[in-house]
Amino acid sequence: MRTRILGIASGAGIAVALYFALIYAPTEQTMGVLQRVFYFHLPQAILSYIAAFMVGFGSLMYLATRDLKWDRFAYCNAELGVLFTATTLITGMIWGRLAWNTWWAGDARTNLELILGLLYVGYLMLRGYLPEREKRARLSTVFGFLAVLDVPINYGAIYWWDTQHPKPVLGPRGGGADPDIKLAIYVSLITFTIVYAWLLTKRLGVARIEDEVGELEAAVETA
Amino acid sequence: MKPVAAIVFKDIAIEYKNKEAFSSMVLFGLLVVVVFSFAFEGSDRKALAPGMLWVAYSFAGILGLNRSLSMETDNDCLQGLLLSPMSRGDLYLGKVGGNLAFTMLAELVILPFFVILNNLAFDTSLIWIAGITLLGTLGFVAIGTTLSLISAQTRMKEVMLPVLQIPMTFPVILSAVQATSLVMSGDSSGVAFPLSLLGIFSTVYITASYFVFEYIVEE
User: Fold this and answer.
1) CA distance, residue A54 to nearest chain B CA (Å)
2) Where do the structural domains in chain A lie, given as residue ranges?
């Protein structure tokens, strides 16, 4: 039921967010229409980081309680992390290609996002190679916890690295003073948070069924 | 401290006998340096050198880490270590000590070849580079020891370690390359930040791994 409500809210929210991003918000002066990519890019980037903290939280809770529920929580958030880092990078590259005439400017934020995505992929790949359920939960949880600790250190390293090599193209990031643009950003952020929550509850439900099937299969084999 | 030292000496004794990890690390590291020096023929060596050095170090380091932990898991030696009366954290510190010793040694052998093949100077900056190598390698093996024991328990041992290790050690490699290029350019004034970042990384991961290590080895 909760999933269904979130699903309907997501669909309606996307429609509203599209209206705000494409019609309601005024066209930005220097960037033109291209700036509208930003309304999708920013919320996805924020959520890709939130996913990292969710993975870390789920991992810590699993180590503390040894309840597979928390392992599933960490795992499903990591999958969403891959999704949201991918869409962030794709929308970012579209913007970069048109605004800076380069797909990959090597900007600090871009590199950070890519490393984050690679950490999620590593986490999911690790799980794929651990067939035993309990072991999979235990080892991937440890990796998830250590990988989340890496995020702030990466942040420090990349930002310092970037300021050592200043780029001429640190373009405008939207936002600014215009209240209409700000409103559109908030609408979009709320919408994508709902989408995230919807995908998460849906995926958690599937993951719980997967675990139940696994347990039943194990029971059949031993019987 | 005694059990930690015992593990380190055990690893050094085994390595002294068969020289497997050390020789493969040195050879592989040299091959990487040779391939790079051919591939980048004619380009600005000084600008490329720090990156080249750390790519060679990290590839060689991954090889050594794979060797060091599969040595324990192949013949169930790990079971014996776990039965011995010491904490899991001490076991971790001992393995880090052993890995640090071999990796550092292999890297110090690679370094002069790297200088020769790239026509760099043998001067005091090499002492700096050796120091950066020590700090960078400490961070690299601090997380690598934990990750290699995780990947040793999967079906795809040798493939899994680099997939986990390279994104995790990204800040280490980035800072070490930055510090090395600052030292090589003769302007070591900005070197404090990357070095402190390497220190922070090692501290965070040695502390975290010390406590989570028992979750990795439990049966």
Assistant:
1) 18
2) 2-222
